[in-house]
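Quick log. Single chain, no ligands specified.
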Amino acid sequence: MSRISNPNARPILAVTLHPRDGDEGMRLKRALSEISENDSDLRIDVKVASDQFIVAGMGESHLERTCDALADRYAIKFEVSEPRVLYLETVRKLGEAEGKYIRQTGGSGNYGHCWLRVEPNEPGKGYEFINAIKGGVVPREYIKPIDQGVQGAMELGILAGFPIVDVKVTLFDGSYHEVDSNEMAFKFAGSIGFKEAARKASPVLLEPVMAVEVTVPEEFMGTIIGDINSRRGRIEGMEHAAGSQVIKAIVPLKEMFGYVNDIRSSTQGRASYSMQFARYEEAPRMIADEIIGRAQGK
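-> predicted structure:
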């Protein structure tokens, strides 16, 4: 038995909003709720303790439109952080691990035990859970809690706190206790087992990359190409268009902040560009180490 889950497109960029006072916080929460009801690509996360609102979307213009609506339509006063890229995590090899949760609380106990195999799934195929249990070593009622524990761990990641995607997880062994086993214990066991197996499966960081098209007069072609290369971009093609050149490239989103001002100043305002999400690619080791270190407070 297997089940495949492939969620819709995930946001690639986020900002944090800080209301200027307590009253504005409640208004901001209501306004964001209203906006997100009509915008399925927008994700809202409220950090109650710190009075922060994390708003995630599909790009700078998407987030700018949301912030403009909050300020203009709802007349809310707030501070907004610099945008930050939302990465993903995945695995490159196969890893196996045991997940065991055994606790004694007063007169009752908790016993959950499973063995999981984690391996890469096809890019874009999402999460696949396979129940390969034979002989009832893990009763049927505890299979779903293990699956739930795995998915909870995937959302938290193991490298830098970003969701893990495109993995196949096989439940192939385990055990239970007639008295002490329960759904909660197996949910914890699934989470523990997945984390350990994923750490053995060569986890990597994925970064969003953008398809960029720059229309530029020929005398500025060298400037634009050099700038794209400096941003870790790859030129994928060029073509003529009404006396100008259209340069097509793939560039990591992380490197595109501030591009609108840079392209204006370097071409005397004579170039224009468009940009849209292309896909996720594995981040280079130096970039990944920087992001992971920052997430771990190093």
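The chain has seven helices and 15 strands.
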